[in-house]
Amino acid sequence: MRKRVRNVQSVGMAIVLLTGLLIGCGKSNAVNETGDQTGEAGANNKGEQVESFRFLKAPISIEIPGQHPYYDYVISKTGIDAKLETFPWNDYTQRLQTIIASGDIPELFRPAGTIDQTLITQGGALALDDLLQEYAPNLWKKFPEEVWNKVRAASDDGKIYYIPKYDSDMPGRSIIMRKDWLENVGMEVPTTLEEYVEVLKAFRDKDPNQNGQKDELPTSGREGARWMDSMFGMYGVAMFEGYPEWQVVDGQMMYAGITPNMKEALAFLHMLYKEKLLDNETFLNKSDTWNAKIQSDKVGVWFHIPYQANTVFDNLKKVNPNAELIGAPLPKVEGYDGFISQKPLAFIDYMIPKAAAEYAPTILKYLDWWYSEEAETFMIYGLENDTWVKEDGKIKYLPEKDTQEKMTLRGNGTMSALSYYDTDFFEKTSELLHGEFTNVIQQMWETARPFSRFIESDGMPNSVYNGFGDIGSHKIYQEYAAKFIIGELPIEKFDEYVELWKKSGGDEVTKKVNEWYQKSNQ
After folding, report:
1. Which Pfam families does the annotation name (predicted)?
2. More confident residue, 308 or 327
């Protein structure tokens, strides 16, 4: 999910108050035979001494087991015990703020909100330039130089303060449609705006879930006008997970939320809302509510992540055994160059606080192992003589010995510390994780690929919003978008909204965004 830029002042205040702590206070560490300090000493399941550190990851979909052979394997290969911690998405930012305020910050963590930039500007983040090349050469070489240049452009001193999450070439978002609903109403996958609207009307009127009730929602979104990117994207508006991005208009970076194209997209969404083609509870839908509607056989079209669609599919099958999903192309709107925004550098994956500098060699060695061949084999196939064996020098996978729990635990969302992903890796893991549904995921990827476009604001630091929290949090846009879509304000008031946005700091932020853009594209 996207990093939120909420509670900017409270996060900043907490970190400013703790700058001294983050810069100067570390924990006692073990000392190796050469006299160099290393990570905190611990013991493995055999009582042998190993280095360890605390590792706060992004939300994990399963409960982390206390002990597991997978942990023992990674420790045996790295000599390091990473103590995994996590929080759920709904309160991840708040919980991270709390542990920072308490001074109990882990040695490695995924930042959220503007925490990364506040740490960098206050001197609380560790510069990684030389350390990465020395202790994590595999990781360092995996990322293209242009990626590291964008990371450098995120700081005033041009140093690398974080490891980004990088999805190199995979179309990560797609229009997902109920294939069985299309068949039930006798229609094809739409390719134009007009066809798209007709499909939505059929989903509204013709009982596509065949339960005899008028309970279908043709399409649905989430609070804040989120996760409806395709309906903005067809008008050429750069959106990512429901947030307006920045895009080049007439040679200058411009906030997508104030473009003339945005005005047209909002007018279109108002029509859908008025005709009950868009879920009229969209602006009340939190993540769990939205997912529940989709998975209870109520929603015909939505926009999300293909790689995560198997969970939706599995739950749908429990409600409707005939449920089928298909990826749909972006409908063509005459006069507009539509696209789906792609952000390979959408997220910051890991930072090391300056207070944990003594742990840095240990942490980076640990991260580097995940870019090795044996780590890839582990992530994809598991452990030798458990879920795979070697025959004639090749891996023979034993699917009957594998389980969903094992695959999830060793995968990229749980134990794995990989930050670089490409289509090849996802295809390998998808086939094992999702079985026959892999074909559906690949169809979604391939359908979305021609419409996916790297957007110009990819990798832009949140520091451009410093001092302008309402701009960075998209608060003004979200308030007015909701009013325009539900009809509380006529679309003719759009220019008034634009002026308010500009006067609230939008003009100043626009200047900083263009300065960053020029710097990062030199």
Report:
1. SBP_bac_1 (PF01547)
2. 327
